[in-house]
Structure formats: structure tokens, C-alpha cells
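Handout, section B. The chain below has 272 residues.
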Amino acid sequence: MKPILRSICIFSFLFTGTVYSQELFVYTEPASNMPAKSVGIRVSNWLMNDKTEPSVNYQFIPEIMWGVNRNLMLHAEGFFNNRNVQGAGVYAKYRFFTQDAKNRHFRMAAYGRAAVNNGVIDQEAVETNGNNSGYELGLITTGLLHKDALSASVSYERALDNGKNNKIPAAQEVHAVNYSVSVGRLILPKKYTSYGQTNFNIMLEMLGQNLTGSGKMFIDIAPAVQFIFNSQLRVDIGYRKQLYGNMIRTAPNGFMIRAEYLLFNVISSKKK
């Protein structure tokens, strides 16, 4: 475990110098929310290498997102993949602390997710965002300093049976603790002149999970690049790789490609 901890320290140092960044991470959500009264459409494509056979597991997750107000946002999402696993989920995030200053801020948020799924349970890892029925509750902290963003999260996740025909094996752990550290830097533009400028961000995320009963765990690394066009269209490309793990996971390594489009002021308040 010492080499893994050393890697985390090195990556944190490289990506969190004192050098305006957007805190929009690829594999995790920041404590900040999307603009109030806006609606977002997001499509995520996961292409993960199957460890049990020479094939690629493809998962497609479409989402509708709603910025209810400056503190609350809601998601509704569907789960589809080439193994006929289907399901749906809802996600909510509430920002409860904000501290703003010139060229920097710090925010904290609480979030929750609930999902249903009818797929075969073929791994020990708990993942309600696409594989398991269940729920997740967590906290996020995010800081922004000039061109750099740093975020960390911790959550409790509980897996449930995937319907009557796909029950969790009796000896399998259903309780998990998740944790993440994400760092990002704005590379372009060097200087802002308009909202129409294309943004280019790079980021690195460390993602982990511990099964509370068995003590089994994994730690992944996920570098990514991100483009934002006209402050509305966002494109993410990332690669997730397991650094360490002693639990069964069918497809821990692979690419994620995502597109997201924001519609501002779609839901406006009625005047009395």
C-alpha cells in the first residue's frame, strides 16, 4: 500500500499548485451545483475491458439534470448495456456551505442516490450507478484556487437484490464505504475574454471502495481531459485503471466518453 499512498501524494502536488479553474470533474461530482433554473442533458458511454473473456463491456447512461436552485440539483438516469442489464436511478445533491473570496472558494454538499437494476450480480464491488439496486449517501468538499480545483468525497453505499431473479449471494458483502480525491487544472484559455471561449481542463481522480464486513477493497486511478464549448457543451474523455484490488470486479479498466449540454433559464419562476 505504500507505493499507492506515495502516488497519491505526488499527483496531488503536481496538480494543486497556486496557478481560474472549473470544478467539473469526470468521475465524481463536485460540491458546486449547475446553474439554478437550468436543465442539463448528459450521455455517458463506458467501454470497459472484461476480465473473464476477451470482450468489451459497453454501458450507456443517459441523464436529465435539473438545477432547482443555487443549492439543490436533481438527476434522473437510465442504465443500459450490452449484457441486457437495465435499470434506473435518481440522484440529489444539496450544497449546505459556501465560502467565497476573490479567485477562490470552498463548498460542501451532501448527496444521495437510489437505484433499481435487474442485472445479474457477478462482482463483489458495490455500484448503484449502473450495476446494483440500492442506495448511497455521501458528503463532498470542493475548493477552488485560481486555476486549480481540489475535491474529496466519502459515502456509504448499500446494495440490494436486483429483483426476485437476481439475488445477492448469501456470503457476499452488501455494505461499502467509498472515497475519492480529485484534482483538476484549467489549461486554456490563458486569459478569459468571453463566455464563448473553449475551455480545456485536465484532471486526475483517485477512487476507492472498502467492503466493511470482509475488508476487501480497491483503489483506481482515472486521468481525464475535458472540453467546454461556449459555456454550454461539455465533452469528457477519461480512462479508469485499477491500481490495487482484492475483490472480484468483472471490468475495472476502460474508457469513459461523455457529452453534456446545458439549457439555461429553462424553468423560470412565475411572477406573482
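Note. The first strand starts at residue 39 and ends at 49. Compare this with the example in section A.
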